[in-house]
């Protein structure tokens, strides 16, 4: 058996079946030890719910984002990622800093790591939105909704809406959802950013996929940077030939 070189902890306990699989996977890797969060070198976040909980707790150690399922033998399945993690000491784990967004929707304040969105409450209903940066109107458009994504988030929901992939620290992607136009513009902006609903349609505000507020005409959603978290750079986790500690040279998909 190899010497244990890495202490890991689960940031938030996932569903029972996933938790059991995760414990079994960690136990099968000699170089990993499952410990209490206070003693961990790396925190494991399984699915976005765990990521949100970890962000709310302001972790002071890197987060390794793990998929909720482990059915594929790919570079980003849980078993492969944990095996790559076990090859490192705590001081050589490649990490990258990701922005945490502050989302203010009316009287509701929350935070997001991937994205925030405004969508019409009724499916396939169009509303009108205005995007403002530094007191200057960037654009107005009609669409089912709009998503504002961090570089981390541009690999998920905004990508499905046709948005671009962004490298770390390049700004925020503003992407209309199902726009009412023959050609749809998209924007990459520096925060802060304000979105406003221009028509009297019922809309919902989502932060990292969870509904946090609702409203109608004149609802404003302000997006700014609230801080940052450190996550394990999954793309370079399997590379041992270079010390990637605290590197910002990474793809949007961690």
Automatic annotation (TrEMBL):
<dbReference type="GO" id="GO:0019674">
    <property type="term" value="P:NAD+ metabolic process"/>
</dbReference>
<dbReference type="Pfam" id="PF20143">
    <property type="entry name" value="NAD_kinase_C"/>
</dbReference>
<dbReference type="InterPro" id="IPR016064">
    <property type="entry name" value="NAD/diacylglycerol_kinase_sf"/>
</dbReference>
<keyword id="KW-0418">Kinase</keyword>
<dbReference type="GO" id="GO:0003951">
    <property type="term" value="F:NAD+ kinase activity"/>
</dbReference>
<dbReference type="InterPro" id="IPR017437">
    <property type="entry name" value="ATP-NAD_kinase_PpnK-typ_C"/>
</dbReference>
<protein>
    <submittedName>
        <fullName>ATP-NAD kinase</fullName>
    </submittedName>
</protein>
<keyword id="KW-0808">Transferase</keyword>
């Amino acid at each position: 058996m190899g010497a244990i070189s890495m202490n890991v902890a689960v940031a938030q306990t996932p569903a029972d079946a996933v938790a059991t699989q995760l414990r079994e996977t960690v136990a099968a890797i000699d170089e990993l030890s499952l410990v209490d969060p206070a003693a961990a070198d790396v925190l494991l976040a399984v699915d976005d719910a765990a990521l949100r909980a970890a962000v709310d707790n302001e972790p002071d150690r890197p987060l390794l984002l793990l998929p909720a399922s482990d059915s594929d033998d790919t570079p980003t399945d849980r078993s492969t990622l944990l095996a790559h993690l076990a090859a490192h000491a705590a001081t050589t784990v490649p990490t990258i800093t990701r922005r945490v967004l502050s989302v203010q929707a009316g009287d509701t304040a929350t935070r997001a790591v991937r994205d925030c969105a405004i969508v019409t409450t009724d499916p396939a209903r169009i509303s009108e939105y205005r995007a403002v940066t530094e007191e200057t109107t960037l654009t107005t458009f009609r669409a089912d909704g709009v998503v504002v994504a961090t570089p981390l988030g541009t690999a998920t929901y905004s990508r499905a809406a046709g948005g671009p992939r962004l490298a770390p620290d390049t700004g925020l992607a503003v992407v209309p959802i199902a726009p009412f136009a023959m050609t749809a513009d998209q924007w990459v902006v520096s925060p802060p950013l304000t979105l406003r609903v221009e028509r009297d349609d019922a809309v919902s505000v989502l932060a990292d996929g969870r509904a946090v507020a609702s409203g109608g005409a004149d609802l404003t959603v302000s997006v700014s940077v609230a801080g940052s978290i450190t996550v394990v750079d999954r793309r370079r986790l399997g590379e041992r030939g270079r010390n990637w500690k605290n590197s910002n040279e990474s793809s949007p998909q961690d």
